[in-house]
Amino acid sequence: MRRLAFGLVCVALAVFLLFPFYYAVVTSLKSGSAIFRVDYWPTQADLTSYVRIWREQPFARNILNSVVVAAAVVALSLALGVTAAFALARVRFAGRRTLLYTILAVSMFPQVAVLSGLFEVIRVLGLYNNLAGLVLSYMIFTLPFTVWVLTAFMRDLPVEIEEAAIMDGASPWVLVTRIFLPLMGPAMAATGLLAFIAAWNEFLFALTFTLSNDQRTVPVAIALITGASEYELPWGNIMAASVIVTAPLIILVLVFQRRLVAGLTAGAVKG
Predict the structure, then answer these.
(1) Where along the chain do its domains lie?
(2) N or C: where does the chain have the smaller number of CB atoms within 10 Å of the terminal CB?
(3) What CATH number has the domain spanning 58-264?
(4) What is the maximum alpha-carbon separation in the chain?
(5) For the packed helices 185-201 and 59-90, what is the interaxial angle rounded to 10 degrees?
(6) DSSP 216-245
């Protein structure tokens, strides 16, 4: 009975989480007034909405912008996170715990609280309506999480490995790149994937710091989709664009799910 109850709960949870995406797929395959009819099973396979989002706006450029920004954010977050994790987990210095909690405190502020100050920073640096400005702003919420997860993972690695490398004359940089980095695959995959998803789905900073359609990322592009005329509702285009944008994330999670779970549970058990 316990296994049956657990299985039913898992099925109910899966249906609850996957139904919105499933219904978006069903709706994206409709056209005209059929979009407003409630159907739980696909009744037609009209790809008009998928064709129109590529023709009526630079959706390919928006996807490319999101890929470039998300990939840059992941690369910078992991590079800075690994070096910071080594210092916080392996180097003893005064104020280490205070610094770690300060890094965590940065991620507690809501985006809207830092929006005005960050806008001034972006404007002074000349990065307004520039993808580099989005990369810089996204680091605010991806880097603290990356540092925390990697620090917890690196803290649990055997100290004997580090001592043996030091006895062989390894420098701190060699320790990070040749010793610890190959052992941190699960944590790197987990933090990198979550940072990619956060950067891919971010909306507020992308809406504020970009002006032209050529510099916008996909969340903003989807929010600004309009019909061909003022009397035409764009729900079919919006559903089709949402499916296209969400599908790669689902594939990435399914591919890296084992490493994702291993990385998120890093540091949970001692001994």
Answers:
(1) 1-46, 58-264
(2) C
(3) 1.10.3720.10
(4) 74
(5) 140
(6) --HHHHHHT---SSTTS--HHHHHHHHHHH
Q: What is the C-alpha to C-alpha distance for residues 57 and 211, in angstroms, rounded to an integer?
A: 15
Tens digit of each residue's pLDDT (9 = 90 or more) over 77-105: 999 999 988 888 888 888 888 888 888 88
Which residue in this structure is represented by tokens 């019909």?
227
- With a CB cutoff of 8 Å and minimum separation 6, the contacts of 145 are 107, 191, 194, 195
Amino acid at 240: A
Instruction: Give the number of residues written for the chain.
Output: 271
Report whether 191 contacts 84 (CB < 8 A): no
pLDDT in tens, 131-174: 999 999 999 889 988 988 888 888 888 888 888 888 888 888 88
Query: Which of the 8 DSSP states describes residue 166?
Result: H
Cα R_g (the chain), whole angstroms: 23
DSSP 51: H
**Predicted confidence (pLDDT) at residue 252 exceeds the cutoff of 80:** yes
Look up residue 56 and give its DSSP letter: S
Q: What is the pLDDT of residues 232-242, one digit of tens each?
A: 567 888 888 88
Predicted TM-score (pTM) of the model is 0.83
